[in-house]
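--- STAGE predict ---
source: upstream dedup step, 1 unique chain passed
mode: sequence only
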Amino acid sequence: MKKLPGSLVFLSAGIYLATQGSIDVITLLAVLACIICGALALTRHSIWALAGGIALISTSLVMQAAFKYLCEVCLKADILILGAVICISLVQRGKNKIPSMVLSGAMTAIMFFVVVLATPVGIGDASSTDHTQTDYAQTLEQSVIEIAQDKPVLIYNPNCGPCGDVVDSLVQLDPKGQYWQPMHSGGDTCKEYLQEKGYQGEVLATQYMGPVPALVINNDGDIETIRGHENIVKTVQENIKY
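--- STAGE serialize ---
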């Protein structure tokens, strides 16, 4: 029974990725890995589940660093997997106890740095609106703030699956970008990516190190960011109605 919490958290991470992530090979492999780790966590080889969890988190962070973006869905899944790793490390016995505690502690420190220190805004809840402080506005390029005065700015990255889903939805609503402005977070305009999705409006880019997708809006003079597919689409829809 002591190993059950770790197994359940692994399964929760897999379910979250399956329901919130994009449908692609990488996501499917990650879901499968979470299921396997969840099963291993219940056996006497639970140390391999811990190692698998650390490998999953490390691979996720390395890929995000390589593509120069932070995926909100990926980071939330990584946090769930980290929770499973910690649960498993706490029930280890004998020669595996100290190494497992060291590994889980090191990964916790890395995730803390990525989530809390390396991002200008918190991950937030997918169903909430992040009310941004002045220091967040200072992390945005002036061009983003200026455009957000007139219409919402979607900061995205082509390598982020959830970003692609959001872009698809907004292109269907407004293919000419009259009521929203896409901006690539990596500084490259990526014209071909947007054109392939049917976008016909102006193509811009910015330098942004926060989790994506993020919709930057001006709410009565305050710069705020909206997260979550449904919330982003709803905000742009309301802007079109207005």
